Amino acid sequence: DPSGDLSGRRIVISAGGTREALDPVRFLGNRSSGKQGIALAKAAHAAGAAVELVAANIDTGLLTGLPAGITMTPVESTLELQSAMHSAQVWADAIIMAAAVADYRPAEATESKMKKSGDDGLTLRLVQNPDILRGLVDERSRQTSLRHQIIVGFAAETGDVATAALDYARAKFERKGVDLLVFNDVSGDRAFGHDETMVQIISSDRGEIVVGEEFHGSKDHVSQKVIAAVSDQFTH
Ligand code: C5P
């Protein structure tokens, strides 16, 4: 079994990209399609896990044909995603944060459609969003019942991990306090919306940071590698 054994495990996976409302018809968003997260959900399900997919703005076409046994919670904004993740956390043996989360949101969303006013352009004021992943790691350390929970983050970067991005990925692994960090090269035409991707899994072994081999291929293929690594964490 290429994806390891997750039978009896409960896995929560966030996928897609958040949208931050400006008004009832406009939002600030990102290019995440949700394909990676869906591939992870399928791989976890194939490995025997009960899966909850927290889906941020994923095209319905991508969601049709999901195996029964994957439950879906749709969310739109970062704050909605955060609350869905914290609700799901109490149930989860492992959490994978694959969603692309907006770091900032408009300071206020207007209730009616914004009007064009004058020729002076428009200045938007943004406020910082919470780091959901960080919050989940903090919550785990507060609750003894969550002590064995596995938490996985993603790091989408441009440039491969062998260059300066490696130091960045190491720093991010430590800063986030996760068990696994999936480094994901999103330069050029890789990743967003595409089927081919490259990942490297960063973990730690007795206090040493270990950067895994490069996995190239389809999002389904690399997802099996990520799920196998999650499965390994349970047996450590
Ligand atoms: O710091 P950076 O955004 O690169 O971290 C990426 C990881 O953190 C991803 O797993 C992403 O889902 C998560 N994240 C989050 N909340 C944010 C920003 C990122 O959970 N506000």
Essential attributes:
236 residues; alpha/beta; eight-stranded mixed sheet; two-stranded antiparallel ribbon
Describe the overall structure:
With 236 residues, this protein is α/β, with parallel strands linked by helices. Helices cover 29% and strands 29% of the residues. It is built from 6 helices and 12 strands. Helix 1 (35-46) packs across helix 6. The site of cytidine-5'-monophosphate has 11 residues, from helix 4 and strand 9. Its EC number is 4.1.1.36, 6.3.2.5.
Which helices and strands, and how do they pair?
Layout: E1 10-16, E2 20-21, E3 27-28, H1 35-46, E4 50-56, H2 60-63, E5 70-75, H3 78-89, E6 94-97, E7 104-106, E8 126-128, H4 132-142, E9 150-157, H5 165-176, E10 180-185, E11 196-205, E12 208-218, H6 219-235
Parallel strand pairs: 1-4, 1-6, 4-5, 6-9, 9-10
Antiparallel strand pairs: 2-3, 7-8, 10-11, 11-12
Bound molecules: cytidine-5'-monophosphate (C5P).
The site of cytidine-5'-monophosphate has 11 residues, from helix 4 and strand 9.
EC number: 4.1.1.36, 6.3.2.5
Region (Phosphopantothenate--cysteine ligase): 11-236
Protein name: Coenzyme A biosynthesis bifunctional protein CoaBC
